[in-house]
Amino acid sequence: xxxxxxxxxxxxxxxxxxxxxRAYELQLFYDPFITHFxxxxxxxxxxxxxxxxMYFSLILRYLINSTLSIALLFVWFPNKxxxxxxxxIFVLAGVMTATLFAVSIGFLPDFxxxxxxxxxxxxxxxxxxxxxxxxxxxxxxxxxx
Length: 145
Hints:
This protein is mostly helical and 145 residues long. The chain is built from seven helices and no strands.
């Protein structure tokens, strides 16, 4: 099988999985803020939260998105030292973001917008959107693309 065809097929599969995580977020994960932030009056009250369940769900979602993102990066840039680097970046970013999230949730509702955006870093594959262009730039710079 052609390696480019395999690369594009794996890319399509991984992107479909990332999109599937987003499309089925209400069925797969416990996050009372998904529907809460869609309300016009979300600043007026804080929804009931099952804290442990929410943290577990956010961490699980982050792990799924991170795994899919790292796999996608590895499909395009198959280098074991880069793989270790990306894993380290995702782990550090996850720990720092989860810590900020835990601290910010204690200050609700005063800092809703900060909380909202920190939460976004955990539930969306933002780090992929940052690392993929960086990897492309680095590959072009070293003539490996």
